[in-house]
Each structure stands twice: as structure tokens, then as C-alpha cells.
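Example record

The entry below shows one chain as it appears in the dataset: sequence first, then C-alpha cells.
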Amino acid sequence: MDMRLSIDRRFRGPVSSGNGGYVCGLVAAHMQAPVVEVTLRKPPPLEVPLEIVPGDGGARLVEGDETVAEGVPAPSAMEGSVAVPPVDVAEARAASAAYPGLAEHPFPECFVCGPLREAGDGMRLFPGRLDGERTACLWTVSEDDAGDVRRVWAGLDCPGGWTAPIEGRPMVLGRMAARIEATPSAGEVCVVMGQLLGGEGRKTWTATTIYSAGGHELGRALATWITLPT
């Protein structure tokens, strides 16, 4: 893989920085580990020269002398984790119709969950709340999404954030640990689930799971979110 890269503006989360899940996946794609934990050290900049620096089985995404994100093998990070139980396609579709981000969204241009992104440009995952602690949505896999592990990491991002009242309390991804089992095929309709695990101060902890059209687990993640200062 080319160690020099830049994050295209298409993959933004907030308007001026990269989507956290996508950037975590970008780092993880340069590692050979079944479970990877990626910590975002600063908002990932868009369309500037970056470099992947490997070392000790991990990888860092750097801008000059600054570390943007750091990935490490984390074999114990998912120990004891439980997949968020799936709902069927009809229930996930109904949840998406009530997605709170359609009315109020802190980052409406987000590559993953932004309602202002057109089909084929963004992933258009609209995680609606099923109850006080879970979300569900559908991911219709595009040709660009298919076979791309970075898109699986991205899909494991926002459905976790929306388990909390992110529309009134904006948060960004701080850390994600994920285990990816497989990537989906073009045209596949996957069910994506989120679960609120807890929170303290400015931190919120979530879990997410993506299921294939056949009901098989594609990947799961645990994430730490940081509430933005007001």
C-alpha cells in the first residue's frame, strides 16, 4: 500500500475534518491484525499530505510531525463483547424513517449519516432509535462500498453515536476498536445496529454491529465518543 495519502473531502464527517470511522479504517487497512484499536489524536485534516508510518505491528497516520491517528493491535479489546442483536429489515427501515438527524444534525454533510449527501456520494446510513439505548438502520452497499474494509469501519461509526442525543449534544469519535469478519457485496442490504453502553463526563461508550443480507456478522466495534465543548 502507498504510505502517502490525503483524505478526500468526500469522506468528511464534520465539514472540515474526516469521518472518524472512515479514518480509523484507513489506518487499520495498513495493519495485519484481527482486532485493531485506533485512537484519533486530532481532527483528521482533509486534502493535505499525510503519511502512514508503520511500527511495532501498528501504524500511525501523521501530518508532518503531528500524529493524527494511531492504530495498535488489540487482541483483548473485543474480549467479552457481545454483538448488538439484529432486527429485521422492515424494523430497521421503519427506524430509519424516524432518524432524528433528518430534522436536526450537527454534521449534515457527514459521509456516513449526513442527510445532505446523495446516494452514491455518501453512505446514507440513517440510524433511528428503537428504544432508549439502541439504533437500527439499513446500509445499501454501493459499487464503491463493496469489498472496502474502510467502509465497514465507517458503517460501524455513526450508528453508535446516534444512540445518544447527539443532535443536541454534538460528539465526535475519539477511539474505536473493531473486528471485521468480511466485507459486503454491491447491492447487498445490510442491517446496522448501535447500542449505548454508558457515559461519564464528556465521554460516551457505544457498541455497533453490521449484519450481511444473510444475517451473518460482518463486523463489530466498541467506540469512545467525546462531546464537543459548548
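Notes for this example: The helical segments are 20-28, 89-97, 149-155, 158-161. Residues 20-28 form the longest helix (9 residues).
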